[in-house]
Structures are given as C-alpha cells and as structure tokens.
Write a structure and sequence with these properties.
mainly alpha, 55% helix, 168 residues, two-stranded antiparallel ribbon, 8 helices
C-alpha cells in the first residue's frame, strides 16, 4: 500500500493536459491522472482510478522503452481485481450504489470467470495465459447470465513523457 501511495503522489505531482500519440496510441514513459480523478469522489470513477493506477504501475514494472505500450495478462487481471475490490468496498459503505458494468463484472468474478473474461475480451497476441483458461465454458455462462455485457476500459489519465512535463 505504501508503494501505491508513493506512485500515486508522483503521478499527481506531474499532471498535464497534453496527451502524446504515436500510431494512434497514447504514448509516454509516465502516467498522469486526470484532474477529475483527483476531485470527483464518484465511487465508480474511483474504482476506475484504482484500475488505471494499478495497470499503469504494472506497465512501468514491465519496463521497456515505452511503458505505455506494455501489457500482460497478469497486469490486466490484477488491475480489474483491484478495481472490483474498490467497488465492493464502496458498495459495502453504501449498498444502494450501482454501476451496470462494475456490477456485471463483479458477477463474472463471483462466478469464477474473471480470468476467462480478461483473456477473452482484452487478450494481446504476446500474452502468456495460465493453464486452465476455459473460454468456451465462460462464453456459455456469459450468454445465459450477462448476454448483453459490453467490455469496458476507462483509463482515468494519460501517458506522457516526463521530460515534456516536468520542468528542468
């Protein structure tokens, strides 16, 4: 938790409104939260802040010349699990809270299909998937239980190059 707080503070310190794109993809070596993420206490938004920070931290841990372009199955899965933990915590304080996407994703997790969900909807060609992923069984379950579910990815921030944001 201490590492998460430190990373959060470093990200907040360098917020910028500029977004750099290369080949139509957000580019950079540092993740910056949006201003709204810092000022809006909406429980669903704050769950997505957890997702965004977790995913970007994992991308930085993978490393490479451009962390914004890095991804792995474990990164995506961990970010979604922590997002759901945040959402569950928020709902425990206010049981009336509802968000169609987060509630459906929570039902997918409770049914034991979060791994399959991530592999099915967000998989990249280079990802190493763990043994035991059963996408066919998940798809049958999905058609019966959440047939109109639409996968979402709400990144609450942007990647940029620190050298373009932090004064020298």
């Amino acid at each position: 938790m201490r590492l998460f707080s430190l990373i959060f503070l470093l990200i907040v310190a360098g917020c910028s409104g500029e977004i750099y794109l290369r080949d139509g993809v957000t580019d950079g070596d540092t993740f910056y939260l949006s201003e709204r993420a810092l000022t809006d206490n909406d429980p669903a938004l704050q769950s997505w802040v957890t997702y965004s920070l977790t995913r970007s931290t994992c991308q930085l841990q993978i490393g490479g010349i451009n962390p914004a372009r890095e991804s792995s199955f474990d990164c995506e899965l961990t970010a979604r699990r922590l997002m759901l933990e945040t959402w569950t915590d928020k709902q425990s304080m206010n049981p009336a809270l509802a968000d169609e996407y987060l509630d459906e994703l929570l039902s997918i997790q409770r049914a034991g299909y979060l791994d399959e969900y991530v592999a099915r909807h967000f998989r990249r060609e280079h990802w190493q998937l763990p043994d035991g992923i059963d996408i066919r069984t998940y798809r049958r379950w999905q058609r019966k239980n959440v047939p109109s579910h639409k996968p979402e990815m709400r990144i609450v921030g942007s990647w940029n190059y620190a050298r373009n944001v932090i004064p020298k």
